[in-house]
Specification:
Shape: globular
Catalytic activity: beta-D-fructose 1,6-bisphosphate + H2O = beta-D-fructose 6-phosphate + phosphate
Order of helices and strands: HHHEEHEEEEEEEEEHEHEEHEEEH
Largest sheet: 8 strands, mixed
Number of strands: 17
Subunit structure: Homotetramer.
Radius of gyration: 20 Å
Distance between the termini: 63 Å
Binding site for Mg(2+) 2: 131, 134, 290
Strand content: 15-25%
Domain Fructose-1-6-bisphosphatase class 1 C-terminal: 216-342
InterPro entries: FBPase_C_dom, FBPase_class-1, FBPase_N, FBPtase, Fructose_bisphosphatase_AS
Strand order of the largest sheet: 4-3-5-6-7-8-9-10
Length: 345
Amino acid sequence: MTQVAETLESSTDKALDRDCTTLSRHVLQQLQSFGPEAQDLSALMNRIALAGKLIARRFTRAGLMEDVLGFTGEVNVQGESVKKMDVYANEVFISVFKQSGLVCRLASEEMEKPYYIPENCPIGRYTLLYDPIDGSSNTDINLSLGSIFSIRQQEGTDLDGEAKDLLNHGRKQLAAGYILYGPSTMLVYSIGKGVHFFTLDPSLGEFILTQENVKIPEHGAVYSVNEGNFWQWEESFREYIRYVHKTEGYTARYSGAMVSDIHRILVQGGVFLYPGTLQKPEGKLRLLYETAPLAYLIEQAGGLATTGTEDILDVVPKQLHQRTPLIIGSQQDVAKVESFMQKGQ
């Protein structure tokens, strides 16, 4: 290592030693409290971080271990083929939160009904909703993936086990965020007080604050959509795509992992689209596990998220696994897409 490199590494390490803010500490600072509710949220975020570390560790060794890559041969409640990492990640979240004492229920797109933790339910006041692996089609080809999470207060006694209190709008979320598994592992979260980035330092085993109060640009050059579905969309969406094709300054970026694509939009600006199709106008994405948590984050960063006709956070689901279309990103870019939709009405 050259002297310059050693000096840079030394100065970076000293800065981390001096300014190191961990995830749990940051939550308490955000809430400006050490009261019971603040301690609960801090502990919950710590558990989510632990799940992220375990999943990230599995990903880094995926090609070296048996029974990590590929499909299980089963189909989940959504009618989708299940990957082995889907199952592993779902079990990680369950295992981690069984020990929390705070969460009574977990609801995941991989499970038909909520998973109850009876020993936690007398005192557990929270529900965790999550997509354990978003973009699992990228698992076997070593591309970025993510996990999405949302924390809600449990309301009522839920004696019938149907979790009907979860059938409520997204503004009821106490916290939401995602974990991005890429060249580094990042955790992005909000508790209604801005959006904050944390990066996993493997040497410390901690998520360290790397960017605070992130704001999405009002406009960006990126549009992110699966154009393979072009002829399945309504004409208004096709007109928007034609518009960006012939307008200078736009660039297409689509990875097949929504967390990765939306992280790019959050940093650089632009718009992510997953519209419904003529045959399935409700779209593909799940409201409670995917679109509502991401909408919560993007709105906290100053962006917009809509179905095309309604703010995502105002949508009240009728069932646990309800789907919605999604238009999300910078204010100006979302508004531009909506303008094409309004013309088509």
